Here is the input.
Amino acid sequence: MMKMFLGLVAILMMCPAHATAGFSFDDVIQKAQVLSKAPYQAPQPVTKFMREISYEAYQGIRFNPDRSLWKKTQSNFQVMFLPPGLFYTHPVTMNIIDAEGTRALSFSKNDFVFADPEVEKRVPADVGFAGFKLTFPLNQKNEQNQFVVFAGASYFRGVGKDNVFGISGRGLAIDTGLSSGEEFPAFTEFWLVRPSPDAKEMVVYGLLDSTSLTGAYQFTIFPGNPTKIKVKAQLFPRKNIELLGVAPLTSMFFYGENTPRPTGEWRREVHDSDGLQIHDGISDEWIWRPLLNPGTLEMDYFSTRKIQGFGLLQRDGKFSNYEDLGARYDKRPNAWVEAQGDWGQGNVVFVQLPTADETNDNIVAFWTPKEPVTPKTPLSLAYDVSFGNADIPQNPMGTVVNTFIGDGNRIGGGTAPNAYRVIVDFAGGRLSKLSSNASINGQVTALDDGEILEHFVEYNEQMKMWRLSILAKPSPQHQLHLRAFLNNEKTTLTETWTYRLPANNNILAKEKE
Here is the structure.
């Protein structure tokens, strides 16, 4: 057992496993361990028709809410199911655990409503399940609201009260962003533990499988504001893994306030998340990195000695900044991962991929251990994933509200060729206790041989926040890489803003011929 996970193992041993009718998390762990000793066998795919079904046709296959699991008992928690097809290329086994024991759930086409009779005729009677949706009276007492979905590889999505679905969590990521290609572990079997009708929490077990490892998962799910999922996982590597992604989060960033608006777009911003937040326990530093839609793959490694939490947040919750009545990006949830126990040294890995539109998830963040992951080192993990409003991290520092960037050689920007004017607005936290004439300093650093030409701080009376203005110039053919925070004498007042702008951007104005 790897030294860095000893504290997590102790946590798992102190927490009794959920048990119903003789079945417990230990049984899933045993299944995963036995499976890891055998060669990997890919799940049996669904029929070609289901794999090649159109998006519209698949959307026309709807689960009938009246057939929801546990609906007849008017349970707080009810379950709806998804058929395989399109993105969901293989079925998963669904089991129910209750006082009568453990049994597999049978698929029935009668539980679904089909918009197209021809599609209904061609869907196999035994096509099976791709995943499930949990419902709960999240907003009103007598109304069932979908709040968690498990479907596709190891993906799951969640929302808090008043959110709409957006960002996704995953059970695990392997080699994300590497040239060797990403491996997608998948949940192949689930066990739904039946809660009491008036329960406020529910337990789900999952069996994960892939070429490189197997895993047993326990999800204890608490709907609310925020919705919290307490995760325990036991992983059994089959082979050495170059880049293991723990508690991965996947989101979308097309464009925002800190990027140019694509030609033809009328909306001011389009994104599911606008920044990466990291909290390291040893330094107690809070880091904020605005998201980008880069021209090429970008990867960042943030070193952590005792990670407390990380997440992808949608801090900008103003409808006027999106003006999208359909997508409602202003209501997209924030996702925050809180480590339980000491995970030891490692890195938060931040992957940004280019995307030409808003249909692709191009942002990934996860934690990876410093120590090598091998078949000799099974891993025990414990963490919480919360979905909800932007205050989930409970960051006590002043936080970044806006990041703007423009040409540093034009009116309003400056008179420095090949430089950038960067504006960072801070508010809240320790700043809220200061008067507007307080003496606030900006601590700004340029990395990668960049140069800070000027910087100053002023109070923005209109917005009731503090503005840091920076004029910076990257070294030739290098990225603009900056770090900054505000302080007052010896007191750090804000989180650390970090920014890395790729060299192949289109922010600087072209020189006139």
About this structure: The first strand starts at residue 19 and ends at 20. Residues 1-20 have pLDDT under 50 and may be disordered. The helical segments are 6-14, 25-36, 48-51, 55-59, 117-122.
